[in-house]
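batch job 7 of whatever, protein = Ubiquitin-activating enzyme E1 C-terminal domain-containing protein
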Amino acid sequence: KSKIPSHVHSLVLDFMCEDLEGNDVEDVPFIKYKLQKS
């Protein structure tokens, strides 16, 4: 684990997914997580 620096305001998560047949799923949207200021 590492701490997130104080200048970071959000994280962008990019996912790689497969369907039930094992094929890559294209066009999966990214997720932007805004961090709370403390």
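notes: The chain has one domain: 1-38.
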